[in-house]
């Protein structure tokens, strides 16, 4: 299929530098996690240290599994062996937990070569965004499997035990991970219009920040009410996972990996909404946020009724106010984005004589090859 690649769709030096900073933040995040666990351990909080390490290891293990599977899938099904990695080499780097680092290095090297070339093909540009999308989705998995649970733990520690930890950047980083994924995802598919920069991106980022933050705070209040609230959270996760099974997602080539993917979708849905099938999700999104608002409001109300002493704390009223205002603002930004700023129409047109849903190969019509990107989470 022939497409016209717009100039803003090209992999630029600015995007290359953003990838460099992404790698640096990734390494810094790993280092800070281990330093934090050591700090907890030295302070005598073995449980906190253990939970921090568990979140890190579970998140890392899951993304390494998917990273290896995607390397292998690209090598076998899409005839892409440009990374020069044998199967043994692939297994080794992922067992050593450096699969994501390898992806960063490969993307930086390949994009650097493309940027220095004056005649980079459009196909290569799309491929670069495909590599970036893989990396972005893996980082998003890591955010919701590792960073968000850690953030809930840290907020709990601050409110319940008055241990002060700097977390302002954590909320922004988590929200930005979803925005970055959305932008990379839409660039990687030639039949989708890109997410515009500037105001649309800022509005979408605001929507995520102001809905994820009160969600994290409300879940923390539930834990403060009783640690058995984690059972209720597990039930919410189970509902999201069951929904992924009901929707019959077909993201992975392996049934086992598909089941793992659906459990991760359940974790993500615990904190924010994602369209897991790429279909019209207005009803699903509406139902999701109705329940989300109800749960967020129930947390401070139950805390007030069942633990009246919490009313006298410094954080109680500010958190209630923040949850109400933040969630209202987040839903307002959501409505603004999807009503006025969402790129509804495709931006790259097929040539006029092609049949919709068919590819032209050697003058013959063939069913299009479904790529992994077309089965990614739609936001």
Automatic annotation (TrEMBL):
Transmembrane segments: 13-36, 48-71, 216-239, 259-276, 288-306, 318-340
Pfam families hit by this protein: XK-related (PF09815)
The keyword Transmembrane is assigned to this record: yes
Membrane topology: Multi-pass membrane protein
InterPro entries documented for this protein: XK-rel, XK-related_scramblase
Coiled-coil spans in chain: none
Entry keyword set: Cell membrane, Membrane, Transmembrane, Transmembrane helix
GO cellular component: plasma membrane
Record carries keyword Transmembrane: yes
Primary location class: membrane
Lineage: superkingdom: Eukaryota
Compartments in which it is found: Cell membrane; Membrane
Family affiliation: Belongs to the XK family.
Protein name: XK-related protein
Taxonomic lineage of the native organism: Eukaryota, Metazoa, Chordata, Craniata, Vertebrata
Gene label: xkr9
């Amino acid at each position: 299929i022939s497409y016209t690649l717009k100039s803003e769709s090209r992999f630029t030096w600015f995007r290359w530098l953003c990838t460099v900073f992404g790698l640096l933040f990734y390494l810094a995040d790993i280092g800070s996690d281990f330093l934090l666990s050591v700090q907890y351990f030295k302070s005598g909080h073995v449980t906190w240290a253990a939970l921090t390490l568990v979140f890190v290891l579970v998140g890392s293990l899951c993304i390494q599994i998917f990273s290896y599977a995607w390397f292998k899938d690209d090598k076998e099904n899409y005839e892409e062996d440009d990374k020069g990695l044998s199967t043994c080499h692939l297994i080794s780097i992922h067992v050593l937990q450096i699969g994501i680092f390898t992806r960063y290095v490969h993307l930086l090297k390949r994009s650097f070569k493309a940027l220095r070339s004056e005649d980079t093909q459009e196909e290569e540009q799309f491929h670069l965004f495909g590599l970036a999308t893989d990396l972005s989705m893996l980082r998003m998995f890591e955010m919701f499997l590792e960073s968000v649970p850690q953030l809930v733990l840290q907020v709990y520690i601050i409110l319940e035990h008055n241990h002060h930890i700097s977390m302002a950047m954590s909320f922004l980083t988590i929200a930005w991970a979803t925005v970055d994924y959305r932008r990379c995802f839409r660039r990687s598919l030639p039949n989708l219009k890109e997410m515009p920069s500037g105001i649309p991106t800022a509005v979408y980022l605001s929507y995520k920040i102001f809905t994820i933050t009160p969600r994290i705070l409300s879940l923390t209040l539930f834990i403060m009410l009783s640690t058995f609230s984690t059972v209720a959270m597990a039930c919410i996760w189970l509902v999201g996972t069951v929904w992924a099974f009901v929707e019959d997602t077909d993201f992975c080539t392996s049934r086992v990996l598909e089941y793992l993917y659906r459990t991760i979708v359940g974790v993500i849905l615990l904190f924010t909404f994602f369209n897991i099938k790429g279909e019209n999700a207005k009803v699903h999104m509406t139902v999701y946020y109705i329940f989300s608002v109800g749960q967020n409001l129930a947390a401070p109300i139950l805390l007030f009724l069942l633990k009246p002493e919490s009313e006298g704390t410094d954080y109680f009223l500010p958190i209630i106010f923040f949850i109400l205002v933040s969630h209202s603002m987040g839903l307002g930004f959501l409505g603004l984005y999807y009503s006025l700023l969402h790129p509804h129409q495709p931006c790259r047109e097929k040539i006029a004589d092609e049949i919709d849903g068919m590819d032209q190969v050697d003058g013959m019509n063939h069913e299009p090859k479904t790529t992994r990107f077309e089965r990614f989470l739609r936001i």
